[in-house]
Amino acid sequence: AGGFAAGIPRRHSQAYLFLLCCSVFPEIHPLTLEELNVVEQVRVKVNDAESTVAVEFTPTIPHCSMATLIGLSIKVKLIRSLPERFKVDVHITPGTHASEHAVNKQLADKERVAAALENSHLLEVVNQCLSARS
Amino acid sequence: MPAGDPSRAGLCHRPPSFWVCSGCISCSSVPAHKRPFGFPSWLARSCLENTDPRTRGRGIQLLSQVLLQCYSLLQEKEVLHLVLFYENRLQDHHLVIPSVLQGLRALSMCEVLAPGLAVSVLKAIFQEVHVQSLLQLDRHTVYSIITNFMGTREEELKSLGADFTFGFIQVMDGEKDPRNLLVAFQIVRDLIVKNYALGPFVEELFEVTSCYFPIDFTPPPNDPHGIQREDLILSLRAVLASTPQFAEFLLPLLIEKMDSDLQSAKLDSLQTLAACCAIYRQKELQEFLPSLWSSLRREVFQTASEKVEAECLAALHALSACLSRSVLSSDTEDLLDSFLSSVLQDCRHHLCEPDMKLVWPSAKLLQAAAGASLRTCHRITRSVVPLLLEQYTKHPQSSQRRTILEMLLGFLELQQKWGHVEEDESALLSLRAPVCSVVFSAMTDPSVQLQLVGIRVLTVLGSLQGFLSPPDLELVVDHLLRLILHEEDSQSSEAAMEAAGSLAPIYPQIFSGRMVPRLGEELQSEREEEGSRAPRSLQQRCLQALAAVSTHTSIVRETIPVLLQHLRRVQKGSEAGNAQDVVSVCQSLHRVALQCQQDAESCWYYHQTVVPCLLAMAVQAAMQESTHPLQGKALLEEEALAAMVPVISAASTHLSPELAAQSVSHVVPLFLDGEVSFLPQNSFPCSFQPFEGGERLEAQRRLVALLMAFVCSLPRNVVIPQQERLLRELLALSCSCNCPFTATTAAKCFAGLVNKHPAGQQLDEILQLAVNRMEPGLAEGPHRTQALTLLLWVTKALVLRYHPLSSRLTDKLLGLLGDAELGPVAADGFSLLMADSPDVLHKGCHADVRIMFRQRFFTDNVPKLVQGFHGAGPDVKANYLKGLSHVLNHLPKPVLVTELPTLLPYKARVIRALAKPLDDKKRLVRKEAVAARGEWFLLGSPGR
Hints:
The structure holds 2 protein chains of 2 kinds. By secondary structure, chain A is an alpha+beta fold. Chain A has helices at 14-22, 67-81, 100-108, 110-118, 120-130; strands spanning 4-5, 8-9, 39-47, 52-57, 87-92. In chain A, a hairpin with a 2-residue loop joins strand 1 (4-5) and strand 2 (8-9). By secondary structure, chain B is mostly helical. Helices cover 67% and strands 0% of the residues of chain B. In chain B, helix 20 (359-370) runs parallel beside helix 22 (398-417), helix 21 (374-394) packs antiparallel against helix 22 (398-417) and helix 36 (723-736) runs parallel beside helix 38 (761-779). Chain B is extended and about 115 Å long. The chains are: A alpha+beta, B mainly alpha. Chain A: Residues 29-91 form the MIP18 family-like domain. Chain A: One of its GO terms (cellular component) is cytosolic [4Fe-4S] assembly targeting complex. Chain A: Keywords: Chromosome partition. Chain A: Belongs to the MIP18 family.
């Protein structure tokens, strides 16, 4: 309902993007990011008309060593799942991680994300997070 | 090195005469003791006598390297001279020593080494060389020399007495390199197990090795030597646990390390202790038993680690076994008894508190000790079982009772390990009445969990020979029956059936006399009184129980008639859902068939009784159907016939060839000529002609399913009478029958026979016949689907056995993918070709199946599928893809992974193409696109 605003179909809703993020699994962890409260629907912002997506994620503890990996996995998942016109911004919920700034910088840097995915070890870990579970 | 002179260089190329060149020795100015026999004089002059130790070293290095190449060609006399030379050189400058050791290593491998020289070399090394100040490689050389001599000159070295041991202790004292330690530990182990004299140096030898215990070694990253911590641990343990002589030093060390903060040290100590117990006697352990026990107890009571607990229990087991093994002289104290007394004293009282933390650790300790020997088992059960029985009565809650009963189960299972027990020795026998009453009380408890443990205890008691008395057994059967028939919870009822199944072969009479008749009665009676319980579930349970209890040949003879009788009743009944009832009986019959397969006598009884009976019932039903077509017969429904197939098949696969031949001589004439005389009820209203034409006979033709079940399950060497005629009839039926079930079954039966048919002209003819029938059928007419089904099954039969015709048939099938009408069915047919078929053409029914057939099919046909896809019109392209996906789906994963890159050139294009539907208007489309694109990203990528 209310899918049309100013004649542009609102195809990529907040709820839809949230579902995408939920299908990311932290490595060897039995719970989803949703169950861990790492991603929440209210922290997913989408503007279909302007083709922007912003996702805030909350590491489980301020020193969580997986923060970068989780952020990277969410970002890769969204890049693979959204049309190319979208600009995807993934960052840490302000004030929830010790190295918030450094991680955000890394995630925002296109070159560094691309380089990370060239690294076969890192790609393997990311792919494991993105493999659907049965 | 003067290598420029061609004449001298030429000399060097003439070994082995090189070594006996007398011309060289005469012109040498080097004193003989500094120069080996036959060593070229120019070399001797320029190198060996050189005053610069580096140059001297290079000369010896060259000589040593030559020796390492050709030591096997040396003569005894040459070796003698070389040994004297090298021994002498050990006194030389330290820069020279590494090369000298290399030379000695070469000489230590000479078979012609004269007696006495090995000892002399070793003495020289022990005396002249400070081994631990050498580099790792040179130390390794010394160990190699010693190892070589120990391998070939054992007697000679032993003549050195304890001096050899002492010498070696000095050599390895302070060794730090893991590579060298592996060798050194092996040498120490050999010293001990090969009985070299240790003399007064036992403690020194222990010190020089035990200082590495517990091993704390982490291989460096990218270590090229590949030595793991575990290698060192095992090789050191082999040393420490190799002799009781170390006991007085080792046991205190182990006790100390068991208390370590490092879990690895704990585990290593416990495992080493267990290893020692294999060779120790009472004497070595005596002094340390109290401390050992208190350490083990402390660890089990305190640890949170399952691993530590398991190793503690294993060590206690080994310790008890060691004490049990020792032979007692009349005047010594029985250490086992006092040891077990302290174990009991510290653990027993915890068993009385089933809610407390220490109850299970205590029970496990007691069970570990009890499991060590018959004696420990007696001693502990005698004390613990009465206590547990008493506690069971004292604790009314079912959760507590369950804990107590589970502990009891553990002790009884240990008893089982020792098999039959002498009556006067068995402490358990006197406890028969209270044990039984506890078990029966558990089985009648409302708690399902308690019932389940009760059933397990009962199974163990039943397996203790002579424990249960005949009246007990009657009660056992009654309790099991009650649980099977009336317990609401299916878990309990199934457990009771399985228990009946495992007890029945031990007490066949009581089960066939008491349980089977009761089950039979229930099966009959439930039809009349339709109470509040769903009668079908009760019937179902009776059928399952009859099958479960058929684990002994005498019981099978009771249950089979009951099951068949029930089948007859079902067939006569006219209720709806009868086919489902037939299926239930068949499932039970199938289970019994599987249980009979291993016993030739039961197998033949089963075959002889069940197969003719099923055939007779089916034939009768089919004839009634022919005369009164409107009276629907449950037995002839597809699902009923399909359920009878595995029964007949399982009854036939394990027959001996002679008996199979006997049986096949009845069954084939039944189908070909209507020979009904061997069937139990053989007066039928009309004749049985399944292969005749005519609408009325449709029901009879369906019974080809039963023929297939039998004839396709026989061992390959059984000759089938009138096989040619049978094959022709099957072929005709498969191509012309309007009923898909019958046509498919005939095709499968044909394929099953063709797969086992010996190669040769006969087979070629029958295959040609099949092709001739198929081709026009496929081209046009009302039976195109039937022809395709036949093509699929025959192709499968031939693909499995690598028959040359299979490729032609596969090509035919590939061609049909482009057919607008048959294409989709042909595409699905690839799944049939690749998958295991449940009833025919599998290994279990003796089909000819080559192990690599899937890989072979893949390599032969995938390129054709891909090519076909490119050339196909848009309306049939999907068929090729479907076929391809079926082939890939059934391919073993390792093969698929190696083959996938050939399919991946499309990956980038696919991912790009899938980007567009990500933005589709419809949510469903986007969802599928996201899933597919995600999968394509992962395809062939690491982490999958």
